[in-house]
Amino acid sequence: MALSILLAAAVLQQLPTGGAGITRERLDQRPPAPVVRKPGPSGQTKVETVGNGQPIAGIAFRGAQAPVNVAAAAEAFVGRPINRDTLVELAGALSRAYKKSDVALYTISVPDQPFEKNVVVVQLAEGSIGSVDVRSNKGRPVPLLQKQAARLVGQQPLEKAAMQRQFSLMRAIPGLSFDTQFDNSGSNDALKLIVNAKQKHAQLVTGIGNRGPDLAGDLLAQARLSFYGLATHGDHLSFTAMNSAKIRRYRQLGASYSVPIGADGLTLSSNAAWVRTRASRFNIEGTAKLVSVALTYPVIRTYEQAADVSLGVDGVNSENAAFGNVIATEQTRAARLSGGFVTATPKRTISASAIASHGLDILNARVISPLAKANFRKVNGNIGVDQKVETRFSGRATLTGQYSPDPLPGAELFAVGGATVGRAFDTSFLTGDSGVGGVLELAYQPLGKGDLTKSEIYAFGDAARLSYHRRGPLPSQRFDLASAGAGVRLRYKELVELGLEGARVIDRPYPGYDGKWRLSLYYNLSL
């Protein structure tokens, strides 16, 4: 279980900055649901008069009935002069209020009028989508996008929740990007939605870093080749490969495939992986194999929030395989239920996830008792906060943990050390049945403009505590570790990231540990 920490530090959301493990695609290793923050269309305002200069005696709405908060926003303008500046400000205030209502598409118009009794008439129109025109690059069909966009047709008026969900699901189609336009030439209320889609069909991401898994050596090269829409629109097939500098120390091959079921976001995913390890300090060669299947459903999708639930099963067969600092020979099976939630604003992002796992004593499951239980139980949890302090300063906090009342198999242990918690230590340097770890980070983006604007320098501190249950004659144990340091992340657009970090050991996990400093370097390229 070497990747429970690494996923939180994925570079370009494709490859981890270091480390490896065949459990990466398991439900208890995945990050929370992503948030689609790119806004969609909303409303427009029109002011077609200059006014008469008299004080506003009242504001009357025509067309649609004004929501309560829109009407309240208009009251603040009573008594102000009827001139163009005031009317433009009025239309803007009403538009901001409308954005907080349930209506997705609207038009606020102040037409040319006589201003009888100094009353300003405001015309409101709440729109709907009457038809959809999906256009793809090179004319290739995009049926999933077509189905999802068609769900917006006919809703009168179109509700914000429905539009944001569908636009978010559309943007989540693997390899797809698009922009939208509205054509209101046919009707003031019923609009034609025009979607200009661009479907990517393949992507290659490569990386190298010196955060290889413990017992296998530091330097690790990795690559992922992804294909989109091979069997059906919306599917995603990827192949991964990882190798340590000394190939016999660590080799991993993996393949994953996900496919949509229907047009409401339900996704079926599967994963298979094989790894060969040779523990550096013991010269023991081992292998492990993983197969997993999961269903994921997007419960919430808006421009600022997302939540997923997933149900899955998986199995790991290992023979003298190194899982972090543990070598195990076992066959484990598990069922997992997970939920993830993310909420994001321009200044703050909060993410949380919880995963419950239960071992299944089926399909030749085998562990060595009392070292582990086949029908184990465990719960994982993660929470993270990313807060912009000023325009270029950000503060980040992450807390991750696992609890189990049982002695766990090697592939289920909680691991620290690596790219997130325990950065001065090797990846998965320590493992335990239960544990908690946290990291605080302060980052500064020195470049305000240009292709390197997302680059940053940062300082951090982290700490963790792990416990290992009693196993027969082996006593229970507890370990603590902590580290601190600083680094730089150089990012060029969404294509390249180069990282350099220095970390110092603050709290040694056990007497006799002689590590002091660690210098980490990684490089990732996305094509």
From TrEMBL:
* Entry superkingdom: Bacteria
Query: A GO BP term, please?
Result: protein secretion by the type V secretion system
One of the record's GO molecular function terms? protein transmembrane transporter activity
Every Haemolysin activator HlyB C-terminal domain range: 194-490
Q: Name one GO cellular component term.
A: type V protein secretion system complex
Q: Where is the signal peptide?
A: none
Q: Where is this region: Disordered?
A: 22-46
The record's section on Pfam families has:
ShlB (PF03865)
Give the protein's recorded name: ShlB/FhaC/HecB family hemolysin secretion/activation protein
